[in-house]
Amino acid sequence: MRIQWFGHSAFEITSSDTRILLDPFISNNPVCSTAVEEFEPDVICVTHGHADHLGDAMEIAERTGALLIANHELSVFFSRQGLESTGMNIGGKISIDGVGIRMVDAKHSSDIDFTEEVTSGGSACGFIIESREGKVYHAGDTGLFADMRDVIGEIYRPDIALLPIGDRYTMGPEDAAVAAGWIKPEKVLPMHYNTFPVIEQNPEVFAELVERTSPRTEVVILDVGGFYEY
Ligand code: ZN
């Protein structure tokens, strides 16, 4: 399982030859130097309707024919643009080419904020991507919530957690370290920081907090464009 980071919350997870792109904020992402034309995913998962997460999802789907996966309301929105889309909701799981995709809760908003009128984009979510090679939790944008411990940590038990640490719009490093302690993954990768000045953070501070409070969890800090092989 290969997990590549493109800055912000944009990741591509490749497992069993299936390429899953999550929150592809690429062309307007000030820290990402990968051209949007380079992406050839099979599936694109969108955690919520904000422009820095939905990003280039529709353009990439249109060019590649990739299946868009999002909450019901965003899925209806995608379908109305003529794109192939599958809607889900919190707690549900589907399987694509042997890779499980589960939608889980996130404490955030999801309005579509880049159209002329801001319209409802359903509820924000996270995803758990699951294959024989491992289980990855992409938290989306979220604050700390107790189901990270009681549901995601206790029941779904991901091997790897991708957690936002930028603060202001999501958890900051302290809450994200608490989340890591609750979820108890083998590895944690910080995301949603240093894209813009308002979410500037030192990921090493997060790593030190996790090391102190959850010594069995290792923090993996990726460079933008870098990947981690699990
Ligand atoms: Zn957001």
List the helices and strands and how they pair.
Elements: E1 2-5, E2 11-15, E3 18-22, E4 43-45, H1 51-54, H2 57-64, E5 67-71, H3 72-80, E6 85-88, E7 93-96, E8 99-105, E9 125-131, E10 134-138, H4 147-156, E11 160-164, H5 173-183, E12 187-191, H6 203-213, E13 218-219, E14 227-229
Bound molecules: zinc ion.
Residues 48, 50, 53, 108, 141, 169 line the site of zinc ion.
Question: Any descriptors?
Answer:
single chain, 230 residues, alpha/beta, Metallo-beta-lactamase, Chain A, seven-stranded mixed sheet, 6 helices, binds zinc ion
Write up this protein.
The chain is α/β, with parallel strands linked by helices. Helix content is 23%, strand content 28%. The strands form 2 sheets. It has a 7-stranded mixed beta sheet with strand order 6-5-4-3-2-1-14, covered by helices on one side. Strands 7-8-9-10-11-12-13 form a 7-stranded mixed beta sheet. β12 (187-191), α6 (203-213) and β13 (218-219) form a beta-alpha-beta unit. α4 packs parallel to α5 (173-183) and α5 (173-183) runs parallel beside α6. The protein is globular. The model has no long low-confidence stretch (mean pLDDT 97).
